[in-house]
TVP38/TMEM64 family membrane protein
Amino acid sequence: MDATKFGERSVNQMPTVLKVLLLIAAALAIPIIPFVIWGHSLQQAADAWEQTQASPIVMAMGLFGLLAFDVFLPVPSSLVNTIAGARLGLFAGSLVCFTGLSVGAAIGFGLAKMAGPAIKKRWLEEADIATLRTFAERWGVALLVVTRALPILAEAAVVLLGVQGLSWRKFWPPVLLANAGIAIAYAALGQIAADQEWLVIALAIAAGFPLLLTFWARKWLRKRHEERVV
């Protein structure tokens, strides 16, 4: 395929893909609003964690549940992963986080695949469907990897590609690989923070770093799109 034509197709795809992705992200972000307004501070969260006397098994089950149903709940997964490492240690914390993140992604993806035909028929034009199909085939795997560590956008990407009908065979490798890296990184941060007694700082880092990544990703995508249009 001619490189110029490929670039033109990419430019034409980006507005539709970004529009749908941001709409999904906005819908998923709605439940978070009350928690942003009335949520506890990181210091209070750290104090509550220190006072918790639950057994490691109960803690593991609770953290797993939060991550597994992340697509439905306003759960800051980076904070959950960090607490898992602090409370359960690197190995067990990473395992719980990896399993929870993977199950959560599978639930969102599976439900989106089942609802995909109805959603496309109700909300999307034929041209948008064709554009999303082409984008999913070419960039779906990369989108899953890039957005895995980004709040809201990670779930939005999973739902978007599920609606479009990306195969499970293409879904699992990038998701499992990215989840493994995320789980290990945050669990290690949590364990180190617990050992050095600076959990509050670690929670602040875990909460702020994904937001910075999201801001940078949006800025980079916008710049790339403007350069291609010009």
Q: What stands out?
A: Residues 11-33+53-229 form one domain. Residues 1-13 have pLDDT under 50 and may be disordered. Residues 24 and 208 are 22 Å apart (CA to CA).
